[in-house]
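Two records follow; treat each independently.
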Amino acid sequence: MDFFITILLAGLAGWLANLLYTDIELSPIVYFFIGIIGGVVLSSIFKLFDIPFLNGYFGDFVFSFLGALLVFLAINVSARFRKNEDE
């Protein structure tokens, strides 16, 4: 059951990150997956560098939210880079 709650929190975090980072318009399902991917990416980075982080559902939500913002930023930068390359 904890796995499903964590997945739902990650999806919610992806959606909320989209509300803050409104340069990109995608479907709500994509926001859900970006929250999940962002949580995995950010928690992996923290584990790689042995940085202590929050535990529990709140920690999962915070990591997913910040990771989703990081993924949105990466998508935006790559889209702008490709746009400048085409010109």
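The next record belongs to a different protein.
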Amino acid sequence: MKEISMYKQLVYLPYITSYKQLILGAVELDFFSQLTEPATAAELSEKNGWDTGNTENMLKGLFSIGYIKRDGDRFYNTDDANKYLVPASPYYNGCSPAVLRR
């Protein structure tokens, strides 16, 4: 992940709990495995039986904090997300105690 300035860290501080819940929710729902290739909210919703609006909100949230990228209505993982948050990766870190305690 990219380093951020002290100022940005202080600005983001009130939102850390929200970021944690967003990321942990995405890990629990296995979002990152499903975004190794671009997909729309509708495609993910249909495949998993999820509500389309909630799926779109999750995708937009992950996009807003830089964990996934967007091309029109299609979303896909960043290189770091593919490396650390896809269980098939040898570098997977999505269920480590350090991630879960943050």
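Discussion point: The first strand starts at residue 39 and ends at 40. How would you locate this feature using only the token line?
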